[in-house]
Amino acid sequence: TLLSLLAGGEEIAKVGTDVRSETEETCEFDFNFLSSANATIPDEYWRVVDTPGLEDTEGHDVRNGQKLQESLQTVGEADFVILVWRNDAKFTRKRASAFLFLRSYFGPSVWNRLIMYYSFWSWRDADCGPELGDPPSECCRSQQELEQVHDQIMDAVFQYISSNTSNGGLGISD
User: Considering the entire predicted model, what is its pTM?
Assistant: First the structure.
């Protein structure tokens, strides 16, 4: 998950196996950014508020919004907001309502702190192999290329976040 990547690979949240949301409640995670493993990025303590998402697969948007508001009152100001989109979903009117949701909870300045992250990555072994029509070596090579692209994207995100945070970060996912 993106949250685990921000924590330097430490698995701190459940990983879903399909498009159904695994995050069931709004919750807070505390960790050192990148587990302090990257010497080029200063050692930073982060608090992230993770939500089941906007347009949650279980249909609990109102409850999730209330819990997000409670967490924001506890945490305080957000240095940035990460909106995670599945890259295979159409941009519908309902999905567009996510932007109104963000503005209502974070104010009009949210646009200056918003990071859009498109994802539907999977590194599971079950996603690679002859049963999918690819020889294992070809599939694994493609998977390695995807991982390299993903790493490059994440490096760019980390650079942006590191240069725009004061004392940690706050994210919201969909």
Answer: 0.56
